[in-house]
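I am sending you the entry underneath: sequence plus C-alpha cells. Let me know what the C-alpha cell row says about the fold:
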Amino acid sequence: SPERKEGALTLIPNPNPNSNPSPHEGGRSRSRSRERGRREAERDERRRMTPEEKQLAELERDQRTVFVSQLVKKADERKVKSYFENIGKVRNVIMIRDRNTGRHKGFAYVEMDDLEDVPKVLMLHDIAPDFQKFPIIVKASEAEKNFAAKKEAEEAKKNGGVSTAPKERRRLYVGNLHVTVADADLMRLFAPFGEIDSVLVQRNELGVSRGYAFVAFKDEKTAELALGGMNGVEVLGQALKINFMGEGPGSRITSAGKDPNTNETRLEEGGDSGVSLGAGGRAELMAKLGERAGIAPAPAPA
C-alpha cells in the first residue's frame, strides 16, 4: 500500500491491526522481562560467589520457601501466587507436574520475597483458600535443620568425630497471639520452664503486634519443655501455636511436661526451671491480660 507522509515522518499502515498487544498483554510482557532480568542478575551474582556464599544464599532462599499440598486440579501458579500475596510479595511459585500429562500433582513450592513473611504464611495451614473448598497444607522448609546438620557433620569430621557446632533447637516460634500480648507477658508465661535468653513479639511499622513472637531459651531441654507445656494453651481465647523455628506451627508436638490429670504444666524434678507460675499465677496473668484487652474474665464456678 502507498506510504503517507506527514511532515518529516513516514507512516506505514500496519498490515495486521490485531497484532498490536493490548495494554494488559503489554503489562504481562514487561513483567516477564523484569523477571528474566532479575533471574539473570541473580545468576551473575551467584557466579561471583565463593562456595560458602553460594551455600548460604541457597539456605536463605530455601528458608523463604514453603511447601503447599492438597491443591485441587483447577489450581494453578497464578491462583496460588495471588492467594499467598495476601500475606506478602511472592517471588516464585513452582507446581510439580506430571511430565507426561502436564497436570500438577497437587502440591507446589512457594518462595516468599521476605523471610519475615514465612511465619505468617505458615498460619494458612489447614485453611481453605479462596480458589478451592478444601483446606491446604502449608509446611516450612527444613533447610535450616538440614544445613545445621551438614555443618555439624563437617565440624565433627574436622575434630575427629566430635561436633562443636551450636545447637539451634533453643528457639521457639509462638503464633496465634492476641494483639495485646507483650514481651513481658510472654516472659512471665514461659519463665517456669527455665532460663530465657530473649522474647520478641513481632510488630509492624506502627508498633501493632503481628500476632507471633520468637522465644529463645538457654538450652534445648528447656525449649522442649516449653513447647510441650504451652502449645495449644488458650491466651485471651486464642490457642497458642508453637513449634521450633523452621518448622510449621503445631507439627509433631508432644505433650511432654503436662500432668495428664490436671492439665497443668509440670517441670522435671530437680531441673533448673525458674519460678513456677502455677494455676493461680497463670489465672492472675490471664485476668490482667483480659483486663488490658477489654475482655471480661469467665465467671468462677459455683
Q: What stands out?
A: Helices lie at 23-47, 51-63, 77-84, 118-122, 143-158, 183-190, 220-230, 278-293. The CA atoms of residues 100 and 106 lie 15 Å apart. The radius of gyration is 26 Å.
